[in-house]
Amino acid sequence: MKIFKFTLIVSILLSGSISCETDTIQISGDLQKMEATKYFDAEVFAEPYLKVYGTWKLFEVSGGFAGNGHDLNFEYLEIKEYGIYGFLSNDTLLEYGKISPAVQTTNDLRLKVDFEADEESDLFFSDSEKYVEFSGSDTLHLNSPCCDRYNYHLKRVK
């Protein structure tokens, strides 16, 4: 009976330690090798928006015609200096290109960005115009400027 209890306790401890491992995020080599000055020679975002840089994990898609969003269609969004982005899923680079501030209207104080796929990249993210909004220091919302389009909600992982 002691052997059974010992085996059970060891099994529980091992399974607990294995399940607590953090996900390893493997950013595509193509995106890592890309020079910061591929699209822009200097910083494109104003100081308050520099926190857009990093690796973001998609956790929800909302909006759309019925308002229900859709299934998660990518895992990570990597945004690098200066205005380089990549959408990743299963360690595969789905699309990459430049992200830049869009032309702002005088009535709108929010940051609007455009995602423009590189001419050598596959096309994945068709709704390329988004407003950037932050919740705290670890949540990024990419919201659509108008009706029946999708909003993407992401958590910072790096």
UniProtKB/TrEMBL annotation:
Superkingdom field: Bacteria
Protein name as catalogued: Lipocalin-like domain-containing protein
Organism of this sequence: Maribellus comscasis
